[in-house]
Amino acid sequence: MKNTCCILFTLLMGVSILAQEDGWSISSKKVEKYTGIVTANGRIGILPEDKPFQTKSIILNNVYDKESPLGVSRILLGMNFANLEVEIDGEKVTEEHVSNWQQTLNMKTAGFTTSFTFKDKAKVSYTIYALRNVQYSGYIDVQIEPLKNIDVKATGIISTPDEYHSPNSTFRVLQDLETTMPILQTVAESRLGKHLVGTSATFIWHAINSTREHQRPQLVHEQVSAYDNRLSFEKTLKKGEAFEFAWTGAVCSTQDFDDPQTESERFVIFNLLTPRADLLDQHKKLWEELWEGDIVIEGNLQDQLDVRLALYHLYAFSRGDSDLSIAPMGLSSQNYNGHIFWDTELWMFPPLLMLNQDIARSLVNYRSDRLGKAKEKAINFGYKGAMFPWESDDTGEEATPAWALTGTFEHHITADVSIAFWNYYRVSQNLDWLKSKGYPLMKEVADYWVSRSTKNDDGSYSIKNVVGANEFAPNVDDNAFTNGSAITALQFATKAAGVLGETANPKWNQVASKIRILKFPDGTTKEHATYEGEIIKQADVNLLTYPLNVVSDDATVLKDLKYYEPKLSPEGPAMGQSVFAVIYARLGNTKEAYRLFRRSFEPNKRPPFGALAEAATSDNPYFATGAGGMLQVVLFGFGGLNITNEGIIQKNPVLPKEWKSLTLKGIGPKKDTYRIE
Q1: CATH (residue range 41-289)
Q2: Section 22-33 average pLDDT
Q3: Residue 429, Cα to own-chain centre: how many angstroms?
Q4: What is the pLDDT of residues 191-213, one digit of tens each?
C-alpha cells in the first residue's frame, strides 16, 4: 500500500466519508445522522459528539451499581469531565456558527480530532485522548488560531449524571511551596450508593509556567448546581498568534481506590505538571506497542480501514495489566449493562490471543479470579465443579436479569471459558500459568459437565434443558453447540492433566466420547432434539466445525453450511456470518468467504465513521463482538492460522481476489509475521 497524502472518497450508507489513504485515519464532514467513535484506554471510554467541544458520555470499566432497587448490576456512567464551552467575543461557539467542520479518528495514536472555523474570527482544533499511560484520565488538547483580534473565554465542566446522589462540587487551589495546582472537583455516590466516585479536572497552559499562580490567566469558579461544576478563564488573542491550552480530568471510584477523591486529584496534578510532549509521547508509545500486533491489507483501502477499526476497538477496550475482560459494547455505552458474556471467550479472545499476549492473559485471568463464585453457583444449582454466569460483573455472580432465560439456562458459557483457557496455554506454552490458573479451572469445568450430563438407556449422554447459542430456541435438549463445547472442554481438561503429569478423571473422556451430536436423516447436523428448520438467531451447529473442530469431514461441513446459512435471522448479531466465512475460507472457497466476510459487518456500519451496531436492524454500537468475528475471518480464515497443541500453525492461507496481499504482524509470543500474496 502506498503511503500518500491523497484522499479517497467512499460512500457509507449514503454519507460521504473521507478516508486517509495511509489506512490509519477516518474523517468525516458534518452529517445528518451521527454515531461517534469512542476514545478509550481500557479503564475509561470517552464518546465524542458532533457538536463543538461536546462529549456524550464517559464509561467506567468494571465499576457497577444496581440499575434499580430490584434490578441487576449496571456499568456506571462516569462524571463527564470532557465537556468545554468556548466563547469568542462574547458569543458561544456552537454548530450553527461554524464552517469547515471535520472530525478525524487517528487509530495509530488513538486521538480524536475536531476542527472547524468559527465565523471569520478563528480556526479551532482540539484532540481528545483517553490517556493509555494515565489510565483513569483524559486529555483535551486545544488550539485556537485567531483570524483577527479576539477575546476568548474557555469553560471546563464536570457534569454529574442525574443518577448520582449527594454530589459535593468544589474548587480548590492546592499548593506546595511555590507550585500551585487549581483543582475543580465533584465527589458523589453512585446510583444506589455502592460506590463513591471522585472526579477532578483543571486547565493547562503550555506556553507559560502553569504552576505559578501569578502567571496564569485568572480562573473563575462557577457552580451552576451540585451537578454542574465549572471553571473558566479569559484571554485576549492577537490575529495570527496561535493559542494552545489543554483541559484534563480524571475519574476514580471505590471499586479501584479506597480514596477516589484524592487519587483523582493526583492524576490531574500529574498531567498538569508533566510537559505535554512527554505526556502524549508516553501515550502514543503505548499505542505503538499495541500496534506491533496488526493486520495490513494491500489493495483494498476500505477493508483495511474496517479491519483496523475493529482491532482499534478491541485494543481500546482492554488492558494487559488489568485482569479485566471486555463487554459486548466495550466502553462505548451501557448496553447489556456492561456485563461480560461468551462474547469475550468465543469472539474477542481468539484475535487478541494472536495479536497481544498481555491482553489475552488479562481476559483469561478475569475468569480465574472469579472461579470461587463459579464453584458456588454449581453447588447452588445441584452440580459439581464450576458453573460460570451467563452475564458476569465485578462480583463473578450471575448478573443476568432474572426474566431472561439465558441467565438460568445458557450453560455453554462454562465450556467456552475452559476452551479459551486451553487455547491460551497452547499459544503461550506458559506452564506456570497452566498449573496455577489454567488447570484448576479446567478441572472444575470438566467435573461440572460430568455432573450436568444425563446418561441415556443406550449408554449415550444428553445435556438437557438448555438455551444454546441460538437463543431463539430456549429450554431444549441436546443443543449442538452446547454438547460440542462440553465435549471439547472435557477433552481439553484431560490433555491439560497430561501436560502437568496429573491423573485425569476417567469420567471426563468417558462422558465426552458419548455425548450426543444429533443428525437429520441426510447427515446434516441437527441443532437440537426438536429442531425442525426454524429461523435461528445466530450460528450454532456451524460452531462445531469452527472453532470446535467436532464436525470436520468436508461433506458434513458443506451440508451444515448450506442448510443453516439461509436460516440466519437478519435481526441476529453480526458474528454469525463470520463463522460461515471462516469455514468457507478454510475450504478454499474465497468467493463465498469474502461475501460472508463483508456481510458480517457491512450492513451494521453506522455513519459517519463505520462504527458497528450489533445487527443490521439495530443502532447500538460499538459492537466489539462483531469486531472479534470479522477479525477471526481474516486471521483464521484467509490468514490460515490454526491453534494447535504445538502452538500457532499456518495451514492453507487464501487471499480474496479483492486484495493484493495480507500481512499479519506480531502473531503469538514470538511476534511472528505472516504474509499472503
Answers
A1: 2.70.98.40
A2: 94
A3: 26
A4: 999 999 999 999 999 876 455 55
Distance CA 37, CA 25 (A): 12
Q: How confident is the model at residue 618 (pLDDT cuts 50, 70, 90)?
A: confident
Domain with CATH 2.70.98.40 in the chain: 41-289
What is the per-residue pLDDT for 136?
98
Here the cell at position 76 is 456506571
Q: Are 260 and 246 in contact (CB under 8 A)?
A: no
Q: What is the pLDDT of residues 463-474, one digit of tens each?
A: 999 999 999 999
SS3 of 85, please? Answer: strand
Report the pLDDT value the prediction gives residue 619, as an integer from 0 to 100: 83
- Please state which CATH number belongs to domain 370-531: 1.50.10.10
E-strand ranges in 601-670 read 605-606, 611-612, 641-644, 647-650, 661-667
Residue with cell 426474566: 403
Q: Please state the pTM of the whole predicted model.
A: 0.95
Closest CA to 630 of 406, 391, 297: 297
C-alpha grid cell, residue 30: 458534518
Give the number of other Cβ atoms within 10 Å of residue 90's Cβ: 7
pLDDT one-digit tens code per residue, 451-461: 999 999 999 99
Give the three-class secondary structure for 624: helix
Residue 465 CB neighbours (<10 A): 14
DSSP tag of 208 = S
Chain segment 350-375, per-residue pLDDT in tens: 999 999 999 999 999 999 999 999 99
Cβ neighbors of 553 (< 8 A, separation 6 or more) are: none
**Which residues lie closer than 8 Å to 176 by C-beta, 6 or more apart?**
none
Q: Of 265, 391, 471, 527, which one is the catalytic site residue?
A: 471
Q: How confident is the model at residue 307 (pLDDT cuts 50, 70, 90)?
A: very high
> Which residues make up the CATH 1.50.10.10 domain(s) of the chain?
370-531
For residues 261 and 199, give the distance between their C-alpha atoms in angstroms, rounded to a whole number: 7
Q: CA–CA distance from 69 to each of 196, 223, 325 (Å)?
A: 18, 30, 26
What is the distance in angstroms between the CA of the first residue and the CA of the last residue of the chain?
Answer: 13
Contact (Cβ atoms closer than 8 angstroms) between residue 627 and residue 348: yes
Contact 247, 203 (CB under 8 A): yes
Average per-residue pLDDT for the chain: 95
Tell me the percentage of the chain whose pLDDT exceeds 70: 96
- Alpha-carbon distance of 158 to 176, in angstroms, equals 25
CB 508 within 8 A of CB 450: yes
| Cβ atoms of 596 and 577 closer than 8 Å | yes
398 is catalytic: no
Does residue 8 surpass a pLDDT of 70? no
pLDDT value of residue 22: 85
Q: What is the CA radius of gyration of the chain?
A: 26
What is the CB-side half-sphere exposure of residue 332 using CA atoms within 13 A? 25
